[in-house]
Sequence to fold (211 residues):
Amino acid sequence: MSDSTLEIEPAAAATLLGDRVELTRRFTQNLATHGEELGLIGPLELPRLWTRHVLNSALVAPLLRPGLVGDVGSGAGLPGLVLAIARPDVQFVLIEPMERRVAWLNDQVSDLELDNVTVLRERAEDVKLANRLDQVTARAVSAFRKLLPLTAPLLRDGGELVLMKGAGAQAEIEAAQKEMRKYKVSDARVQVLGEGLTEDVTRVILGTVRA
Ligand SMILES: C[S@@+](CC[C@H](N)C(=O)[O-])C[C@H]1O[C@@H](n2cnc3c(N)ncnc32)[C@H](O)[C@@H]1O
Fold:
């Protein structure tokens, strides 16, 4: 049935991922095979798994700098595992409280032989990483206003938020002015990634934490 068939790999995958595309194919296939039974992706996601989930995450890779990046609420590994595949020069900490999801993430780290990933079974507000990270990513965790207390305290002075968002990203920034002052986030702005490359563009809210 067409509505439960894995999307054919778009040409943009090889363009975006270069020599990491083979490993990304393996992760995508693992997610297609086990994601629904493990409650990681919904039943309607297979026909758009590459475009909406994997490539959408991979578009963020060029924004990362060598250093320590935390992904808050990694779930199925989006964007954390895709970014760890795409950027072997960056160290990642995946922060995810749910046991079953943590087991999946650890299984994937082993299966894909990723040596740049640590998985922590924690809520972001409890994790012992205050002021330690260079950048923080998150996707589909909560509104920017509510995400700030979970992410900004983990960043060192000068560290950067890289938060994946939908079409309402600019409005989310406007609704978070009070929290931005409280968590010392300056220069919050929306960047659109993937225009002309994939059907689903990715929007990120970027912002810098100043002590
Ligand atoms: C809707 S899922 C999104 C998962 C993944 N980022 C994605 O885009 O597919 C939200 C994830 O955030 C996690 N989460 C919720 N509250 C959290 C918190 N306080 N700290 C860290 N992770 C949290 C949930 O367990 C869940 O895996």
Residues 21-34 form the longest helix (14 residues).
